[in-house]
Design goal:
The chain is 10% helix and 35% strand. It is mainly beta.
Length: 417
């Protein structure tokens, strides 16, 4: 009785074309246990669905690995593509078949390692590779802003090459768009529309942070016959925390760097009928000279409100033409009254200082104005005017009651004073 297992082990190894004289070492390790043995080549025991003639596999079809005959079973399957992504799959309880449970990536090469064992527990192995056909439609993401150094309020943008409407497909996209910050932050993507996403942290970026954005969409199945394409990564550096608060009630702007007040400036903001927007805005850019006309914001030429002025040291905060800029014609009202057509005006010297101090991504917040609140999207970056809870509802990865997709304002691209 004690000899029977040893005889069956030798016969099994012989049938699998393992050299008989090496039976002891091939079927058992130095301790005599089958699992300590060197694996035999299990190629003849397995059938795979991937083409073996060099043809490219259809990524729409699952990968299957099946044990042939009745003298062995599959114990494990690992499939990894060239991007390092693992292909998930399920193995039947009897070890007869493994099948992928997620879509294959398109336009990539897979390396598949299969572990088996024979009826006596001796281990076998097979490794094979195959390629998948490229996608006919590729979804790519273009990240913004351009590489450089920005203020703590700068959102990350992702512009998609094709619209994505289905919530499950959006979730696939979000998982593939990676934002890594050092130091780390809590953040989320928000779907502005079918082709644009914004990313912001829960709080402002930490001063001095390094941020890297990558898109791991390449080859990934997003939706029905839609796969991802390659996206160029982006690296940003975050500068000091510069925050400017313009109080339309007191007619002063307070500027802080990393929490410390560095300047208090007398200003004028929008007068009745042209009130400056309340809320948090992000510096979009700086223009040394801008010609500002009343006709650009709907003021009739020749009317009592008409103007046509050269403006210097203009720091833009909305696409529709709201700036922080030099307004030498209103110095007498600065610190006293609101007389502008919507911009934050100050003396030329103060405007030059502000222009030199801030950079894109810095924060300009307006309080105590009679104007509406800054639009969240479409007229610059009003992202920070949403609470974190509301921002999270714009993600496809968060379950929320009545998850609304934000609409964008059609912004006027002309300045006001």
């Amino acid at each position: 009785m004690n000899d029977t297992p040893r005889i069956r082990t030798v016969l099994s190894c012989t049938l699998l074309a393992v050299t008989v004289t090496a039976a002891a070492s091939a079927c058992a390790g130095s301790d005599g246990h089958p699992l300590s043995a060197r694996a035999y080549d299990a190629a003849d025991q397995l059938a795979v669905s991937a083409p073996a003639d060099g043809a490219k596999a259809d990524p729409e079809k699952p990968l299957e690995v099946t044990a042939k005959g009745d003298d062995g079973r599959i114990t494990d399957v690992t499939a990894i593509d060239t991007a390092g992504r693992h292909l998930a799959g399920e193995l039947t309880a009897d070890g007869r078949r493994w099948r992928s449970t997620v879509a294959l990536a398109a336009g990539t090469r897979y390396t598949v390692r299969v572990a088996t064992e024979d009826e006596d527990g001796a281990p076998g192995a097979r490794t094979f590779t195959f390629e998948t056909a490229p996608a006919k439609r590729a979804l790519t993401a273009t990240f913004g802003p351009e590489a450089g150094t920005y203020g703590v309020g700068q959102p990350i943008t992702a512009d998609l090459s094709l619209p994505v409407k289905d919530r499950e497909a959006r979730a696939v996209v979000e998982r593939a768009l990676k934002v890594r910050s050092t130091p780390s932050v809590e953040g989320a993507w928000y779907w502005v529309d079918d082709k644009k996403l914004h990313f912001r942290p829960k709080e402002y970026w930490p001063a001095g942070a390094s941020v890297t954005i990558t898109g791991n969409l390449d080859g990934l199945k997003v939706g029905d016959k839609l796969y991802g394409g390659a996206s160029k990564p982006l690296k940003l550096t975050i500068g000091d925390r510069i925050e400017a608060v313009a109080d339309a009630g007191s007619h002063y702007m307070t500027v802080r760097r990393n929490g410390e007040v560095i300047n208090t400036i007398p200003v004028t903001t929008g007068k009745p009928g042209f009130s400056t927007r309340n809320g948090i805005k992000v510096v979009l850019g700086k223009e040394y000279y801008v010609r500002m006309r009343g006709t650009s914001i709907g003021i009739a030429e020749g009317s009592s409100e008409s103007y046509d002025l050269p403006v210097y040291y203009a720091t833009r905060v909305t696409w529709s033409g709201e700036y922080v800029h030099a307004a030498p014609w209103s110095v007498g009202s600065q610190g006293v009254a609101n007389v502008s057509h919507g911009c934050v005006g100050m003396s030329t010297g103060n405007a030059a200082w502000f222009y030199e101090t801030v950079r894109p991504g810095d924060i300009v917040r307006v309080v105590n104005s009679f104007g509406n609140t800054m639009d969240t999207f479409g007229n610059g970056f009003g992202d920070w005017n949403l609470t974190w809870a509301k921002w999270r509802e714009g993600s496809a990865l968060v379950e929320a009651a009545g998850n609304p997709v934000a609409t964008t304002e059609k912004a006027r691209l002309r300045p006001s004073i």
